[in-house]
Specification:
Length: 208
Amino acid sequence: MIVEAAQARRRLEPDVRRGQILTCAVRLFGERPYAEVSTTDIARAAGVARGLINHYFGTKKDLYLEVIRVMLTIPEVAVERLPAGDLRTRVDASVSWFLDVVSRHSTSWLAAVNAGGMGRDADVERVLAQAEDAAADSVLVAVGLAEVAEHREELRGMIRAYVGLATATAKEWLNRAALTRAQVHLLLATTLLAIVEQVIPTIVAPAR
């Protein structure tokens, strides 16, 4: 049993080290532009050899793309933990979760959505688009539309537009302080409810 436990710990070590590197990269890329963060900085902050960054992530850019992906992807567990109530309850909880996350990691999240000053880099654009698609799918799950196959791309397009609104609204709150959290919550929850209850039924309703 002791040997098995030791082996299990050794198997976990790479994941722990990878997590340490990623956590430090999220913080540093949130604090400084991409060009001002080196792999040496990240390795020093994580307490690992610089070669481990290449081992786990590849290049500095590969690590940065992973940071964007992590900051903008809604974990499955977040959707699974939503309350099993009515639509309004789940929408309210979903918006609360989103606002909690972006406020807790505001500098890193803002750096990710703004692509850290890298401009229109093709790889960054690809990761941002993938994150947007994944977010749309997660929202569809949250509002109970995951199994709707008809007009699927139209539904995803609507929710992607909503994700864009959520991002822009959160930036108004965090960057400009033009809106309060309560105002952002009201806007996002009301809009999502309207999309699900009023707009989507006109698309998926059977033709008469």
